[in-house]
Design a protein that fits this description.
seven-stranded mixed β-sheet; membrane; Tad_N; 26% helix; six-stranded mixed β-sheet; 4 helices; single chain; 2 domains; transmembrane
Length: 349
């Protein structure tokens, strides 16, 4: 009779233990892979929700309302943005709401899983289903806020609201000439435009002034020539290239309602920000790019009334049109600026 030895029994136990450990490792690996799938799905859904919220926020602004009656059409228009952020080109917009929080309009978009192959509203595990793990439903949410800019940096020129009608931010205006002449003053709430400055701001960087509405007075940069604009040459040339190519140049300018002192000690109080569509300008008697589409013949060729042409001599002007404008450019900032028709669509969560 052959008897088993103790070593033979231990070999059997080790084999069983090895199988159990291998199954456990496979199970842990399967769960890890499927968790990675869930995290990747959530990231794709978040990107889609962000894109849809920004797009719908812009539609709210353009239609001057965030009425829920538009939600269906705007959701359908934003669906390709959500799908485009998914690896399988399929996601669902679960809901779109338009809450008003602290007086500011918001847009909240919630997205959820949709299987690109089956159309199911859940994510099927790749491996963990062998362990009887239920399918997962993944979602994400994005919120944007619509509010006027309150601070930011940009072209170092401000306009006086008392000189030009820039305060009616509800609709686009007609083409107009924003002109400054030596000694020019405007009757406003607190006095006159700074003589010799025409709203030129002290630059915080090359052709850039940092401003904030409602809180501080921004220093002026007195002068009326090329010296203060040399750093702006690339920007002005960019405007020319864009217009000549058939594009539009929309520039956000600070608007001031108060001006104190004169010359180098002058300061502006920023009321808010308005967007102007630029057609021409005359910033200095120095040729291009400091002068562009500023003569009567230039405007006639563009179909613009030649009476808006800039005068000769030391007069300075911008030929532009006030426009309603939305931006997602963070350089315009957000804050407590007055609504002058420019709105920043900001992703807040």
């Amino acid at each position: 009779m052959i008897r088993g030895t103790r070593a033979d029994g231990e070999r059997g136990a080790i084999a069983i233990l090895s199988v159990v450990l291998m199954l456990a490792l496979i199970g842990v690996g399967a769960v890890a892979v499927d968790l990675g799938q869930v995290y990747a799905e959530r990231a794709q859904l978040q990107n889609g929700a962000d894109s849809a919220a920004i797009a719908i926020g812009q539609q709210c602004y353009k239609n001057q309302t965030c009425s829920s009656s538009y939600a269906g059409a705007w959701t359908a228009a934003a669906q390709p943005l959500v799908n485009g952020n998914a690896n399988d080109n399929a996601s669902a917009i679960q809901s779109v709401t338009f809450p008003v929080v602290n007086g500011l309009q918001e847009v909240v978009v919630t997205t959820s899983t949709r299987d690109g192959a089956s159309g199911a509203g859940f994510l099927t595990p790749l491996f963990a289903k062998a362990l009887n793990v239920a399918p997962a439903t993944v979602g994400a949410q994005a919120t944007v806020s619509l509010k006027p800019p309150g601070n930011g940096g940009g072209f170092p020129l401000a306009f006086a609201n008392s000189c030009f009608d820039l305060q009616s931010g509800q609709k686009a205006g007609n083409i107009m000439q924003l002109e400054w002449k030596p000694g020019m003053t405007c009757t406003g709430p607190s006095g006159a435009v700074i003589a010799g400055g025409w709203g030129w701001l002290s630059q915080s960087g090359p052709c850039q002034a940092t401003t904030a509405s409602g809180t501080d007075y921004i220093p002026s940069n007195p002068g009326n020539g090329v010296a203060q604009l040399q750093a702006c040459q690339p920007i002005l040339q960019g405007w020319i290239d864009t217009i000549n190519a058939g594009g539009q140049v929309n520039v956000v300018f600070p608007v001031f309602d108060q001006a104190i002192a004169q010359g180098a000690g002058g300061q502006f109080h920023i009321l808010g920000y308005a967007t102007l569509r630029i057609y021409g300008w005359h910033f200095a008697n120095a040729g291009s790019p400091y002068e562009f589409h500023d003569k009567a013949s230039d405007l006639t060729a563009l179909g613009i009334n030649p009476l808006y042409a800039c005068s000769a001599g030391d007069d300075r002007c911008v030929i532009a049109q006030f426009v309603r404008f939305d931006t997602v450019d963070p350089s315009t900032g957000t804050g407590s600026g007055q609504d002058l028709g420019t709105t920043v669509v900001t992703l807040i969560k």
